Amino acid sequence: MYSRNAEDASCRAVRAEPGAAVPDFLAVRALCALDELAEALRLRFRVFEPYGVVAEECRRAGAGIDLDEFDRFSLHFGCFDTSHSQRLVGCTRLITPRHQEALDPLLSRISSSTGDATLDRLWQHRPGFRLLLSEAWHGHDFPAALRDGRSQIAELSRVGVCEVYRRRGVGGRLVRVAVDTARATGFHAVLLACGLWHVPFYERLGFHVIPGTGEAPFRSQPSRAMCLYLS
Ligand SMILES: CC(C)(COP(=O)(O)OP(=O)(O)OC[C@H]1O[C@@H](n2cnc3c(N)ncnc32)[C@H](O)[C@@H]1OP(=O)(O)O)[C@@H](O)C(=O)NCCC(=O)NCCS
């Protein structure tokens, strides 16, 4: 794993003005190999740990990875800087109702490499299909159109970009690739929960706030639930 300082120093050159097109050397694709999935979980920890959304077990393990029970049901995506030894600069996941069995051996190796048995229990835990987002509702309900077709819904989660690569279109490209994959895989809608300040970002990518759920707090933050219908 490279150090944060080294990353900052070597990546500063890619900063650009807001709205600039995504440079050709940044490529988004699905993650399937052990090393890149492990790197994505480390990137997630760096980006999301300060927001308090990383599982307590991961914080306690001290391994610097963000892993949870949704990961083996997710399609994972990464953005690579091809001009920098394929460095991973952003990632996201699409939580699906389907167990992505091919991920189990990878997640098992990643969690066991931390030497913390509680992480193994964490990612293997599954009380029944649910979307991460459903935690936000606590008594609220999904609109009927979404509730009735849950098996056709995917949830976008953990869209994270290394600080020095932000505002270059990486986040937007990650979301688009995830949404295109959801559409191609037969999902009818993609949901997400986000902080208020990110609503315009997702609106520009075609999502809209789900009526009636707008005030639901997500992990105690003022949040919005958003949806993009694909069919
Ligand atoms: C949100 C995030 C993924 C956006 O990634 P990104 O690569 O910067 O996204 P893009 O370059 O595709 O789009 C950036 C747009 O988002 C908005 N935005 C991003 N960062 C912003 C900032 N610091 N201040 C204001 N607007 C910002 C702007 O509208 C911007 O568009 P512009 O550059 O044309 O003005 C990234 O900032 C991040 O990783 N944040 C921390 C993790 C997080 O909060 N994830 C979202 C969870 S819901």
Label this structure with key terms.
globular; disordered N terminus; Aminopeptidase; binds coenzyme A; single chain; alpha+beta; seven-stranded mixed β-sheet; 231 residues
Blueprint of the fold:
Blueprint lengths: L3 H8 L14 E5 L3 H15 L7 H6 L12 E8 L5 E9 L8 H10 L3 H8 L19 H4 L5 E9 L8 H15 L4 E7 L3 H5 L4 E2 L13 E7 L2
Parallel strand pairs: 4-5
Antiparallel strand pairs: 1-2, 2-3, 3-4, 5-7, 6-7
Helix pairs in contact: 4-5
Bound molecules: coenzyme A (COA).
Description:
By secondary structure, this protein is an alpha+beta fold. The protein has a single domain (14-229), classed as Gcn5-related N-acetyltransferase (GNAT) (Aminopeptidase), CATH 3.40.630. 31% of the residues lie in helices and 20% in strands. The chain has 8 helices and 7 strands; from the N terminus they run H-E-H-H-E-E-H-H-H-E-H-E-H-E-E. Strands 1-2-3-4-5-7-6 form a 7-stranded mixed sheet, sandwiched between helices. Strand 2 (74-81) and strand 3 form a beta hairpin. Helix 4 (104-113) packs antiparallel against helix 5 (117-124). The site of coenzyme A has 17 residues, from strand 4, helix 7 and helix 8.
